[in-house]
Amino acid sequence: MSVLIEACVDSVESAVAAVQGGAHRLELCENLSVGGTTPSAHLLEAVKQRVDVPVFVMIRARGGDFEYSRPELQQMRRDIDTAKRSGADGYVFGVLRDTQVDVERTRELVGHVDGAPVTFHRAFDLVDQHRGLELLVDAGVQRVLTSGGASTALAGAPALRELLNRAGARIVIMAGGTVRAENVAELIRRTGAREVHARCELDPLRIEGIAAALRAI
User: Fold this and answer.
1) Are 136 and 101 contacting, i.e. CB atoms less than 8 angstroms apart?
2) At residue 187, what are phi and psi to the nearest 5 degrees?
């Protein structure tokens, strides 16, 4: 069974540790204490020099909620432009409006990445997920990071399985939310997910443990 591991990292050191531990893709952020914001061009360039896996860049103007003003959305588009020049392989963002996916502004940002893959992050856990999934497919998003709306991915396993069934081949459902070595095998068994997301910056050995657990399935 092949399961892709995406590691959320916020430094060159955590990026290198994640790849050495078995990560297949990175999500690069800064300010993970507020859930992640757009990293600097300098950090992205430094990470790209040290790793040989795709690096997806968080595009988020600030911490807090996911309903952005027009100036904040303009800043996010400028951040996408900067990330393009610095070698980003993909982009991660989430835009809501009135507690639902803001399909219009999501489509605008998707159109700004010039065909690069886009992940809609865990802002998705705050919306009606069945409706939101269809809106994201319509907006051209390739991947959704979600816990199934629960506090952890394992707790949200039934909803994740349903989302995976609904998504089919139209969009990737990536399971995230307290993914650990001790629960990842059960998460895969209960959901059928083929991509998982875990934070690496607090524990450089976390990804290695998850990779080892997946190899044992």
Assistant:
1) yes
2) -60, -45
Residue whose pair of structure tokens reads 């605008």 in the numeric block: 108
Is this prediction's pTM over 0.85?
yes
Record the tokens describing residue 100, joined without a space.
């639902």
One-letter amino acid identity for 67? E
Domain positions in the chain are 4-215
Tell me: domain 4-215, CATH 3.40.50.720, correct?
Answer: no
Report long-range pairs for 1-4 (Cβ below 8 Å, ≥24 apart): 1/188, 1/214, 1/217, 2/194, 3/188, 3/193, 3/194, 3/195, 3/196, 3/214, 3/217, 4/194, 4/195, 4/196
**Cα dihedral across residues 55, 60, 64, 65: positive or negative:** negative
Compute the distance between CA of residue 36 and CA of residue 41 in angstroms, rounded to an integer. 15
Provide the sign of the torsion angle of the four alpha carbons 196, 40, 106, 97, taken in this order.
positive
Name the token pair of 30.
């800064």
Question: Strand pairing partners for 113?
Answer: none
Q: Beta partners for 176?
A: 197
N-to-C CA span, the chain: 7
Mean pLDDT, 10 residues at a time, the chain of 217 residues: 94 95 97 95 98 98 97 98 98 97 98 98 98 97 98 98 98 97 98 96 85 95
